[in-house]
Design brief:
By secondary structure, this protein is of the alpha/beta class. Helix content is 31%, strand content 17%. Helix 4 links the parallel strand 4 (75-79) and strand 5.
Amino acid sequence: MRAWLFPLTAALLLAALPASAQYRWLDGDGRVNYGDQPPGDARDLTRIDTRGRVPDENAAALPFELRRAMSQYPATLYTADACPPCDTARVYLRRRGVPFLEIVVETEDEAAEMRRRVGVDSVPVLTLGRTPSIGFNEPAWSLALDAATYPAQSQLPLTYRQEPPQPLLPRVSGPAQRPPGEAAPATSPR
């Protein structure tokens, strides 16, 4: 067996291993923490990274060139409601045939999280991998997509379905959580 074959095979196998996921959580004192190994008692645990995200049901039908670009430089579009530039950006990505994850930023907490992730709290923002393109500018976004090896013309099959927009942080349903040590509001008997 050739001496170079083993290191090459090992490198390919290591490259195929998934990257560690990143999480956001609250500790016992109510402080926000980030890392890849949340403790067992973590509250409000949220997975925050999107690297390597490929819609599973659609991935098999996509051309290799597109799947490769998606795995190396996943496209995430940060938007908001009632945002005409966001609508234009969304239409541009769909016309170009770029599968993307759309994240809707609605609350102050989400704006703060977006500022932490990409450095700004204004929309639209397109991230390719970890590189943000701030504000919609078609020529600049086209160059960024070209550099990330996304095809210049749509190669999406007719059966491809875009994932629905998602909130940046999970929506809390039910009563709001109180800070540690704060008593529950008193209820009066009827």
